[in-house]
Design brief:
CATH class of the largest domain: Mainly Beta
Bound molecules: CIS-heme D hydroxychlorin gamma-spirolactone
Number of domains: 3
Shape: globular
GO molecular function, one term: heme binding
CATH superfamily of the largest domain: Catalase core domain
Strand content: 5-15%
Keywords: Heme, Hydrogen peroxide, Iron, Metal-binding, Oxidoreductase, Peroxidase
EC number: 1.11.1.6
Helix content: 25-40%
Catalytic activity: 2 H2O2 = O2 + 2 H2O
Function: Decomposes hydrogen peroxide into water and oxygen; serves to protect cells from the toxic effects of hydrogen peroxide.
Length: about 750
Amino acid sequence: MEARKIVDAVKDAVEAVTEPTVPGTPGSGTPGVAEPTTPREPLPPKSDQGTPEPVTPTGFDTGAPKTARGQQGAYLTTAQGARLRDTDHSLKAGPRGPILMQDHHFREKITHFDHERIPERVVHARGTGAHGVFTAYGSAEAITSAGFLKKNAETPVFVRFSTVLGSRGSADTVRDTRGFATKFYTSEGTFDLVANNIPVFFIQDAIKFPDIIHAGKPHPDREIPQAQSAHDTFWDFVSLHTEAQHHTIWNMSDRGIPRSYRHMEGFGVHTFRMVNDAGETVLVKFHWKPKLGVHSLVWEEAQLIAGVDPDYHRRDLYDAIEAGAYPEYELGVQVFPDTPDETFAGIDLLDPTKIVPEELAEVQPIGRLVLNRNPTNFFAETEQVAFHLGHLPPGIDVTNDPLLQGRLFSYVDTQLTRLGGPNYSHIPVNRPHAPVNDMLRDGFHQQAVHAGVAPYKPNSLDGGNPFETTEKAFADLPVRVAESTKVRENPVSFDDHYSQVRLFWQSMTPVEKEHIVSAYTFELGKCYEQAIKERQLLALANIDADLCAQVAAGLGLPAPAATVEPAEVAPSPALSQLGQEWPADGRIIGIVVGPDGADGAGAVREAILAAGALPLIIAPAGGKAGGLDVQRTFNTARSVEFDAILIADAATPAADAIPARDAKAGAAGALAVDPRVRLLVEEAWRHAKPVGAWGTGTAVLEQAGITGTPGVFLAESGPGALTTLQQFLARHRVWDRFPATLA
Ligand code: HDD
């Protein structure tokens, strides 16, 4: 009896709060703009929203509509095109009854949703992509027959940038290698240049790839840490497997935390072979050089961004393209004679843990890439794009680099799981722009309606089609393969694991060296196993005694003696990121104003825009500040978003807006500075960014105690501040401020 009462009471209460309402109608409780009730013309489908066109060997048109899967028409339909009256309620046996099995719309909707996810990439899972155009200079015509490298040839491309270790949802700014994979849709077949922002690799033989990746990925028991190399298994592996030391020092340098994908070099890593129309061959290494120069974050900044804006690099690329600040890169090659020993200046060109310093072989520009279009749909394009080193047009071929050889297997293999079968080249983003006439048939997700009856050769039934040809065809070069016996061995030249690591270290400026020492100290400091730290210190001793001593001091451990005689190396200045000046295009400058704006802020904003950089007005609240549109408020702004800060107004807050813990801000009688503005300035200063002020803004610099330090300037007016600022931005950071900071 008691239980019955409780049930009734609950029922009454539930009925009281479930008065039926119509969404979007007055009184329905739906805030803001109501859902439109009459259909409008939808936006026209974008060019790449169609289904893949039917591919047939003979050009047979199946008559299928070309845009069958683009969003079309005003009315909702099932997957079969039947219009629907209601997609908000399942079909039930009465309003309170169970769902009926016959609800085909419910089952279609939920089943499709249940299968929306595909496996993330086993490495490089986190990434972002863009479309662009590659224009050849013609300078490579003498060394390759590839049509897309002929003078002024324009080739559409898709690029995907990525980190390596993290999962799909991990942060962008972690310390890691970055992928830089480019698909050139050439008229002679697709060419994929699957590159990284580091010119060497951890391993010399592809058979070790699962080992290095298992070591770098999170620990298998706890699945932590995410997207990090600062843990025991990574350092366990690289300290034992010392050929990884070269790649590792690049990761520990500022290259491991790029400022953006627009500020990053790319390297094909391996040596490739090019062949010209006369059949002559050369060996080449590919380099991408960013127009904006190579710049990096500082470590504390990278860590903060990972929390404040984990999509930082993805957002940067997307916003830059939307704003018309198209990222640009120049493609270059180092060219070497194709000699039987495949070495250059004593460097084994088949060893992917070695570079050829640019001072020994100049990088010769062969074309320019402009990224000018964001994907329409992230999943369709960026997630489904599939790269493969074996996608080679006539004129470019592989070498026997054992890492490259293994990659030739892995990239096709991995797509079979990731994209669910062998027909991934039918996915729009993967479709070649060259005519396809293969004899591959059937399989999961087949999109082509192949005509003909004889997908085999030789045949007579299809008139002997398709025919082989020597004209513009890929040729397997008659490269000599040494007569040898089967072995599981590397060439002896691969045994030198330290001399080029030393070369890298010795090519760094003092600031860059300081950052490398901090990075090693941080990462090893996160390891638990004493033996691993000691073993890595031994590897550092074999690289450079000074490097080892500094890291050992940071860890509080003795510096071991080297076990390998240090090599004599000639530093390569091209490896340093410092010492040059670069355009300030697309750099982001925060201008702090008060609630009523600030004198000169509007003029300086215009001048920044005219200089090709991006000004963002930061004010106490959103909306307008003295006629200026406010883009960031004191609540939403954080220093890491900006390359420089200008304070036009001390932005004096109302007394009660200052949190109690900051009540001591400023000396007695001084302007009260909003603590968030002070934090903005202090962080920017710590990260060696230029900071300037005029008017009452100068009070902020004084209260932060940074007046008179390098890169901190007081200007008479807004335009005056910009002139000074540009000089600092050209060098990216105020390097003189290091190493006084611990960034
Ligand atoms: Fe790899 C993806 C770059 C060695 C196996 N790799 C992948 C991507 C890049 C690279 C940029 C992401 C492509 C995308 O955006 O879809 N990988 C490199 C470079 C290497 C390298 C520059 C050394 C010079 N990779 C390497 C080895 C193996 C693989 C030695 C295996 C033996 N890589 C793969 C893979 C991935 C991949 C498992 C994962 C997703 C994919 O291929 O499509 O096949």
